[in-house]
Design a protein that fits this description.
The protein has 62 residues and is an alpha+beta fold. The chain has a single domain, classed as Macrophage Migration Inhibitory Factor. It is 31% helix and 29% strand. One of its GO terms (molecular function) is isomerase activity.
Length: 62
Amino acid sequence: MPVITVEGPKTDDLSKKRDFVEKVTEAASEFYSLPEESIIILMKENRQDNVSVGGKLLTDKK
């Protein structure tokens, strides 16, 4: 059973999250030739003050 971990920015839009996991699950199911019920997705949300790019916090890049 595949476990897919996705790290990204925090979002409170449950509709977008539902759509995202449905699409990723469908793609993984097709790729692995496994039923969708066997695909696990873990979403890790990161606040912008916990992520840096090029030595700068994303919070400071706004």
